[in-house]
Design a protein that fits this description.
Rossmann fold; binds beta-D-glucopyranose; 12 strands; seven-stranded mixed beta sheet; alpha/beta
Length: 374
């Protein structure tokens, strides 16, 4: 299911050839671009990256940062990777700082489209190329968008929740709720589009009934509280929860536990986080969606190379995603997500995304032994 290491090595070699840089040496390619002007420092150019926060998902610091760093290093690009900590004004300060430092490419994961667009506009005015990383900035006009097929991510959640229910013999008379991501994140809308689509047949037939639809704002507590309210409103008759990521699933599972219902009500998730995988192994969570961030990071670095080289369009950006504000199609790289249940948690670990020593602890240890995860 996953890309073989050999293929990755070949792709990295191709990237090295492209920028004619000394791949393999340390090349001074890590650290901060803060002191360097455009083209200084990194032999292949400089890129500034702004990640959104460190709490709505562990992925940003645990996976995206090191994988982006590694991808840029291999390509001989100097990268300054910063985190806005969920703070719009810090995001703006980081954006201004990177533009003033003269990065060649600015890559952002926005906190919302408005502040994201303001940053992208300033970069453009300064002659800096831009890439939307993971989240599309509506109205932002970035040169490229690199992400996953996010509608498909949502469809996989719908598929997963139906599978977990039918494994328990439940195929009708099902009440379910949707706990959505933060409405400021365009991805939250795409995920929702996917799971609404995936649930259409069973809701149209009357077998399933949507009895609650709330945002959990990518926050465990907000999601837990939203779930608890819906649970009370529905007199405790909720049979399944579509949660748009693992962080929110954690908050919902805590509420199910408090009601003695964990393991009895399938909950979905996304990100294949350590916490999410552990909850799947212990039977508290039905599934997660694994997005191989290494592919996303590699694509981002390749696009940065083409922009640094002044190329118009990259062969890599074969997809397009509509920007509903500018009404233009943004050239995109969209990677494929994968569905993870208890019996294939091992794939995520074999792929090197999470470590067995982190996942196989506490209550998850026994399942790891049973499933040969080490
Ligand atoms: C990302 C998800 C993440 C969420 C919260 C989304 O834009 O695609 O992977 O769980 O943000 O950080």
């Amino acid at each position: 299911m996953f890309e073989r290491p050999l293929v990755k090595a070949a792709a990295a070699a191709a990237a090295c050839a492209l920028v004619l840089t000394a791949c393999g040496d340390d090349g001074g390619s890590s650290g901060s671009a803060a002191g360097g002007g455009a083209g200084e420092g990194g032999e292949g150019g400089t890129v500034g990256v702004i990640l959104p926060d460190a709490t709505t998902s562990p992925r940003w610091e645990a996976n995206d940062r090191p994988l982006l760093q590694a991808a840029f290093e291999e390509a001989g690009i100097e990268a300054d990777i910063q985190n806005a900590d969920g703070d719009v004004s810090k995001f703006g300060t980081l954006c201004d700082g990177m533009i003033n430092a003269g990065v060649n490419v600015l890559m952002i994961t926005n906190l919302d489209s408005e502040s994201g667009s303001a940053c992208l506009r300033k970069a453009k005015d300064a002659g800096i190329s831009t890439v939307d990383y993971d989240r599309l900035t509506l109205g932002g006009g970035a040169s490229y968008y690199v992400s996953f097929d996010n509608v498909e991510v949502g469809r996989l959640m719908a598929e997963g929740v139906q599978k977990c229910l039918s494994d328990d013999g439940k195929t009708e008379g099902v009440n379910y709720v949707q706990i959505n991501g933060d409405p400021t994140d365009n991805n939250a809308a795409l995920f929702k589009q996917g799971y609404v689509e995936g649930m259409k047949e069973v809701t149209d037939s009357g077998a399933f009934r949507l009895v609650g639809d709330q945002t959990g704002q990518w926050d465990a507590d907000v999601a837990g509280t939203a779930f608890e309210q819906l649970f009370t409103q529905n007199g405790g008759k909720i049979d399944a929860v579509i949660s748009a990521n693992d962080t929110m699933a954690g908050g919902i599972i805590a509420r199910l536990k408090a009601n003695g219902l964990n393991g009895k009500v399938p909950v979905t998730g996304q990100d294949a986080s350590v916490e999410g995988l552990q909850a799947i192994l212990t039977g508290d969570q039905c599934m997660t969606v694994y997005k191989a961030i290494e592919k996303e990071a590699n694509a981002a670095s390749q696009l940065a190379i083409s922009l640094i080289n002044g190329e118009e369009g990259s062969d890599l950006a074969q997809d397009t995603v509509p920007d509903t504000v500018t009404k233009q199609d943004v050239p995109s790289v969209l990677e494929e997500p994968a569905i993870i249940y208890r019996d294939n948690v091992k794939d995520v670990i074999d792929d090197g995304y999470q470590k067995a020593e982190d996942v196989c602890t506490g209550a998850a240890e026994a399942a790891c032994t049973e499933l040969g995860i080490s």
